[in-house]
Design the sequence.
């Protein structure tokens, strides 16, 4: 088979993606996205291309992040993205998790990528990575989300102080475990106007990695702690109709809790701004148009000035 054939190109793209994404991450990528992914070099052994649009920075307090562009001429609307580690997202040839950020860039936004807990700059030496690390933390009684959110807030304050971010136009987006983090971040940070989630973790006990974790242990990081703080905030959730990895039913339950909290705590609101889309997707995958819908929703909620 020729390296220049469409089949060879698809195989090379999938091979490059598998080098930087976990099996759970790969499952999220819609099948049709591979066909529109940027090309990769045809020669074997060449590393996946770097996402040159991500520029790594660090706050004075030592919190790592990456921005999608240079410093804007004036403070810009800002989307925080939490999905995979900065390292993985920088070398992902599909640039899958930054689809929304790259679309919003055409409308004057900047995107800011944060490492999830237990990944990238937040990976502790000798500790299990990712969700296994989360489980270990809660088994030890460690509310790691609290310190994680403090770091996220430090990045936001840094970007405002440096003139990158308009403090009146801030949103956060999360995919899978990143959605869980995004909701916690928004609950603790009043400057965040909108939170959007694609196939989010909403109940850690639904995860295979949390096998053996008790309900009491998981309560340390439960989103139930966030519901009242998110009352009246604009929340957009998207999930497949049969996502057993993170539980479609748990996502639906969270949306109902958010609506109930909004109605109870913000009775002056005519409508509660919580939107849930349950659509067609295979397993733990984003719906084919999830990120396009997300971008449209954010542009509507935080329009140009």
Sequence:
């Amino acid at each position: 088979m020729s390296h220049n054939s469409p089949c060879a190109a698809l195989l090379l793209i999938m091979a490059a993606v598998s080098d930087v994404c976990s099996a759970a991450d790969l499952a999220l990528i819609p099948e049709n996205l591979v066909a529109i992914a940027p090309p990769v070099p045809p020669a074997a052994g060449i590393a996946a291309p770097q996402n040159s649009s991500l520029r790594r920075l660090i706050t004075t307090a030592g919190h790592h992040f990456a921005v999608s562009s240079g410093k804007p001429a004036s403070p810009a609307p800002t989307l925080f993205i939490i999905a995979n580690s900065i390292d993985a997202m920088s070398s992902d040839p599909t640039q899958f998790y930054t689809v929304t950020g790259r679309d919003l860039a055409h409308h004057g936004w900047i995107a800011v990528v944060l490492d999830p807990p237990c990944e990238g700059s937040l990976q502790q030496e000798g500790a299990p990575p990712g969700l296994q690390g989360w489980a270990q933390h809660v088994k030890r009684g460690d509310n790691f989300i609290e310190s994680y959110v403090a770091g996220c807030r430090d990045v936001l304050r840094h970007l405002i102080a440096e003139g990158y971010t308009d403090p009146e136009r801030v949103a956060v987006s999360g995919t899978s475990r990143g959605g869980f983090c995004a909701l916690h971040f928004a609950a603790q940070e009043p400057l965040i106007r909108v939170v959007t989630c694609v196939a989010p973790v909403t109940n850690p006990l639904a995860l295979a990695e949390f096998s053996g974790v008790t309900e009491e242990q998981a309560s340390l990081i439960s989103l139930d702690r966030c519901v009242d703080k998110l009352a009246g905030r604009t929340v957009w959730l998207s999930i497949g109709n049969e996502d057993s990895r993170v539980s479609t039913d748990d996502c639906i339950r969270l949306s109902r809790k958010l609506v109930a909290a909004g109605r109870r705590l913000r009775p002056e609101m005519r409508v509660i701004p919580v939107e849930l889309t349950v659509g067609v997707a295979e397993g733990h995958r984003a719906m084919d148009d999830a990120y396009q819908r997300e971008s449209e929703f954010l542009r509507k909620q935080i329009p140009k000035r």
The chain has a mean pLDDT of 87. Residues 50-301 form a domain with the Rossmann fold fold (CATH 3.40.50.1820). The radius of gyration is 19 Å. The longest strand covers residues 165-175.
